[in-house]
Amino acid sequence: MEPLNNKQLTTPKLFMIAGLLLLAVGLLFGFTGALQYLVPGFLKQYLSFEKIRPLHVSSIVFWIIFGTIGAVLTYLSQHSGRKIYSPLLTKIQLIIFILSIIVIFISYCVGIFGGREYWEFHPLLALPIAAGWVLFLINFIKSVGSFKKQPVYVWMWLTGIVFFLFTFLESYLWIFPYFRNNVVNDMTVQWKSYGSMVGSWNMLIYGSSIFLMEKISGNKPFSYSVIAFALYFTGLFNLMFNWGHHIYTLPTYNFIQYISYVVSMTELFIFGRIILQWKSSVSIARKHFHHTAYRFLIAADVWIFLTLLLAIAMSVPAINVYTHGTHITVAHTMGATIGINSFLLLAFAFDILHDTCLPFTLYKKWFNRGYWITNLSLFIFWISLIGAGILKAKWQMSAAKIPFSTMMLQLRPFFIVFFISGTVMMAGFILILYPLLKNQFICYLKNILKKRKIKEQHVSGIFAMD
């Protein structure tokens, strides 16, 4: 495993930096959306809630996608000790994705929609994203070369890339009348595709996590162990079948629901166990050397436990009837997206981008404060959503027929806590992201100035020779 030069601003690093910027933008949109819950009509003339919501969701989804691509490409190079097969394809993919996101955000702002849930933009804008992902797949396969005797994380990356492309295309089956004209078929395919899509990027993230844990501990045999491949096959099984718990309320086949109930979240249980076992095997010296990345891995492990508890409860059909469509589902999503996926991606970001130009130790106080503020406020944020969800569940299953407006007034105290904790959490993330992004910006300027200086010296040398 050969580390790359930290001072090179490579395209995979640019993917990670772009992802971090999208996280910051997503937090800003999330803050605005939370404020609109408390102050109805806020910014309605310019950015109403129906625009803010997809802006927030798309920003966070693309943060996960960009951060994951940056991590996979960087760690693949470190694993093989070679450069990516085609840096040009990687640059083309980055340009396609950035231009697509700019157009998507503009379309949201002017009120042009046409998609579903994660992809609320016009379906035509999905074409460049799919094309960019195909380039990613080609680059990955060519870079790996042979798949014989590869560690588990290479197989997880391959599976995640292939299945993401499959589920992304599957999520657009609704454009065909055969699916769109049948409500049950339409909703089943839609929820199935999104559930499996999350499983796909989980494959990419968990594979990168295993690589990083191997890198920190120096324990290479673990990636070939039975427990590691158990996580892989359990994740693959979950990816294919655990989406069933999303459709308990649909009149579909019972065996799908039973299978999904059995497999739901077993992947999180195994992954949490892996981190727990790995933590006890890492020496104090290695923990210190990888201080920041290590702490995010541990934070993710805590959130795996909390998310697993909630997910198991939600997977029980008798409970799911109450929780489906409430803020409890949002709490589960936030715990997984922020507490697990985002914290793991931040672990990768600090491992890949740390000390690029300036030692990150200069910002130690910023990070420590941001780390604890983010974790504590996320927990309060999570609890407030669960509380709001319980009240809404009682309302939607009640025979009293209480007006929706009355129910929303009852939820207001939870929304206030939700807003305050979300604002504090955003501040915590800024304390974490600011020094990391500032370091990259300084590095970028230094590279430009260095190239300009070399060019000027070269020109001066030519004139001196004349």
Features:
globular; 466 residues; 16 helices
Number of helices: 16
Q: How much helix is in the residues?
A: over 70%
User: Could you say which overall geometry the principal axes of the C-alpha atoms support?
Assistant: globular
Write down how many β-strands occur, each being a DSSP E stretch of 2 or more residues.
0
Distance between the termini: 48 Å
Gyration radius (Cα, Å) is: 23 Å
| SSE series | HHHHHHHHHHHHHHHH
Task: Give the mean pLDDT.
Answer: 85
Strand content: under 5%
The major sheet is characterized as: none
Structural class: mainly alpha
The low-pLDDT segments are 1-5
In words, what does this structure look like?
This protein is an all-alpha fold. The chain has a domain at 8-145. 78% of the residues lie in helices and 0% in strands. It is built from 16 helices and no strands. The chain has helices at 11-38, 49-80, 87-109, 126-144, 152-170, 177-180, 183-217, 226-241, 254-263, 266-281, 284-289, 291-315, 317-323, 327-353, 364-396, 404-465. Helix 3 (87-109) packs antiparallel against helix 4 (126-144). The chain starts with 10 loop residues before the first helix and ends with a helix.
